[in-house]
Design brief:
5-stranded mixed beta sheet, Beta Polymerase, domain 2, 44% helix, globular, alpha/beta, 14% strand, 7-stranded parallel beta sheet, binds zinc ion, DNA polymerase, domain 1
């Protein structure tokens, strides 16, 4: 229901008229209408549809027209015009969800505030609460509003964005008015951080789609609402845009809005050579402006002599040239993955039993998993002692038999600061898979850290280096390590490097995974799951692998069990 939004707009109009010292009669009229709308229990859109707006107390012809206009466009020209007439800075302040025109004026006049930064400072200093009609609560809400605006300008880790985008896509897909729908932008390319969510739709009734989109429960602020494009800010602070495009242009729009910009430049260069023009509306012949393609992406690429290119590699890193020669890599896919080689259970800091993890992995269709709880020195996460490890091995074998999936016994063995491992060799020898990782003393010099890690790669019982750079997306920088030398050492010692699929890590990054592939280092994609649900993180790791141009042959856990174990024995 738009009742409250329209009421808020009328209140804002009244406030602005008051600031402008307009006739009290008009001001009162808007306030009355706002009050009526706030008290209305029926959806205003339904009343408008019956053409009965003027039966609402306080709604005359003029106000009724503004309601119709708002229902159609998401705003009113009169309202926008008034906003433009206010002093500069005031409208900026009004972008803060809690601040209307009157408050903005008050802040401006009493405290000289004309920017968001001023407002934040004054709120933090407790000056705002001292103004008439304000209080500590308002001040707090203003600060929250500012934080929301700031977050909407930052990039968020993909793990925080993809589930939201899927929620929106699911909600819109349910509408019978929606024919085609897809995410576009950096999210479709599966970049590790995302600036905003772009969704494209074809629809027989765009108004309906936009109404549902702009009133989804997670929407905190509607920035714009129209029939071809609407923008909102969601509760996590990220902006989401929905565009409605013509069915004949869906492929062209999808290609255009998926990007990357650099990739699209390459594709357009090819079009120019063929006297074609490509834009979001289609592919056109330059000489007569006739559209020759646009319905599907395949069609668009075909007009410039290219096969369809997977979104994850549309980064202008040589993919167009390879596509031209029909030599695109056959990228690894989620369904190629046959096992998961890093996960934690209740034996250390995980939440599930070995058996529960095994069952969940079997449901995902895997052939094998490795249980890799933390080693003994990591006491704060319940690292497994050597005595416990013997028992642990038995439990894994039992789960293997019971669930009917191969449960390999492993460890995520700590790399101690001096480059020794946290278990002696005779213990490591008893395990099927040994993952080694750094979890302490992150602040060493690059020289020391590189030496520390390379030393353990020389150990013949070690198979995989876990989360090789230690970064936590958005919260901890990678430790200083010479990735170049690390990759060389991995190749020399035939140690696999992990692509840690946990959305908090994504480590190796796509760029480093690509370097490793180019130099022939084997890679694994592991979830580092700490609950059975996190086994689903595999898709993030596969996305990194695809962005790094990995094919199934580059990924050890795409091998069937016997081949994987062959690699383990050779190592
Ligand atoms: Zn770890």
């Amino acid at each position: 229901m738009k009742n409250r939004e329209i009421a808020a707009m009328f209140n804002d109009i009244a406030d602005m008229l008051e600031i402008k010292d307009e006739s009290p009669f008009r001001i009162t009229a808007y306030r009355r209408a706002a009050r009526s709308l706030e008290g209305l229990t029926e959806d205003i859109a339904a009343v408008a549809e019956r053409d009965e707006l003027e039966e609402i107390p306080g709604v005359g012809k003029g106000i009724g027209e503004k309601i119709h206009e708002f229902l159609k466009t998401g705003t009113s020209a009169y309202y926008e015009e008034l906003r433009k007439q206010l002093p500069a800075g005031i409208t900026t302040l009004m972008t803060v969800p809690e601040v209307g025109p009157k408050t903005a004026m008050l802040l401006h006049e009493k405290l000289g505030i004309s920017s968001i930064e001023d407002l934040e400072r004054a709120s933090k200093d407790g000056l705002v609460r001292k103004l008439p009609r304000m209080g500590a609560k308002t001040e707090e809400n203003i600060l929250k509003g500012i934080a929301l605006i700031r977050r909407s300008k930052e990039r968020l880790p993909i793990g925080a964005v993809l589930p939201l985008a899927r929620e929106i896509v699911a909600a819109l897909s349910n509408l019978k008015e929606v024919k085609q729908i897809s995410v576009a932008g950096s999210l479709r390319r599966m970049k590790e951080t995302i600036g905003d969510i772009d969704i494209l739709v074809t629809s027989s009734k765009p108004e309906k789609v936009m109404e549902v989109f702009t009133t989804l429960p997670r929407v905190r602020q509607v920035l714009a609402r129209g029939t071809t494009r609407s923008s909102v800010i969601l509760d996590t602070g990220i902006q989401a845009d929905v565009r409605v495009v013509e069915p004949d242009a869906f492929g062209a729009a999808l290609q255009y809005f998926t990007g990357s910009k650099d990739h699209n430049v390459r594709v357009r260069e090819k079009a120019v050579k063929r006297d074609l023009k490509i834009n979001e509306y289609g592919v056109f012949r330059v000489k007569n402006d006739r559209r020759i393609a646009g319905k599907t992406e395949e069609e668009v690429y075909a007009t410039v002599g290219l096969p369809w290119i997977p979104p994850e590699i549309r980064e202008a890193q040589g993919e167009v040239e390879l596509a031209e020669r029909g030599k695109l890599p056959k990228l690894v896919d989620l369904k190629d993955i046959r096992g998961d080689l890093q996960m934690h259970t209740r034996w250390s800091d995980g939440s599930d039993t070995i058996e529960a993890m095994a069952k969940a992995a079997k449901e995902l269709g895997y052939e094998y998993i490795a249980i890799t709880d933390h080693s003994q020195s990591l006491k704060f996460v319940g690292g497994v002692t050597i005595e416990e490890l013997r028992e642990h091995i038995k439990m894994a074998r039992r789960a293997s038999d019971k669930v009917g999936i191969t449960v390999l016994m492993g460890t995520e063995c700590d790399i101690l600061p001096d480059g020794r491992l946290d278990y002696p060799d005779d213990v490591l020898r008893e395990l099927d898979v040994v993952v080694v990782s750094v979890h302490s003393r992150f602040r060493m010099s690059e020289e020391e850290m590189t030496a520390r890690i390379i030393k353990v790669l020389e150990n013949p019982h070690v198979h995989i280096l876990g989360h090789p750079t230690g970064r936590l997306l958005g919260s901890r920088e990678a430790y200083a390590v010479n990735i170049d030398r690390l990759i060389d050492a991995a190749r020399r010692t035939k140690t696999a490097l992990e692509i840690n699929a946990s959305p908090q890590r994504l480590d190796l990054s796509d760029m480093h995974a690509r370097m490793a592939r180019e130099r022939g280092v084997p890679l694994v994609i592991s979830t580092d799951a700490h609950t059975r649900y996190q086994l689903r993180y595999m898709e993030y790791g596969v996305a990194i692998a695809r962005r790094a141009w990995l094919e199934p042959k580059h990924v050890l856990n795409a091998l069937p069990l016997n081949k994987f174990m062959e690699w383990v024995r050779e190592r």
